[in-house]
Design a protein that fits this description.
The chain is mostly helical. It has 2 helices and no strands.
Length: 72
């Protein structure tokens, strides 16, 4: 059974509008604080690093599984 997830992709205008709204809310909260640019940039950088680390760990786990199954 295949599940259609196309409604949850960036190419879907409604989903993209929802994502943009969430991003704007987040940026707005940061802009209400003192030292907005310092903390926003710092937290953005940290978040991107965490996302990269998360995806690297997931990729490593998947590669290990594929290796155990004999695909590598």
């Amino acid at each position: 059974m295949e599940v259609d997830l196309s409604a949850y992709t960036i190419s879907n205008p409604q989903y993209r509008k929802k994502m943009k709204s969430g991003l704007m809310d987040c940026i707005s909260e940061y802009s209400d604080e003192d030292q907005f640019d310092k903390y926003f940039h710092e937290d953005l950088g940290d978040s991107l690093k965490e996302l990269q680390r998360y995806h690297q760990e997931k990729a490593s786990a998947l590669k290990a599984l594929l290796t155990r199954l004999g695909y590598f």
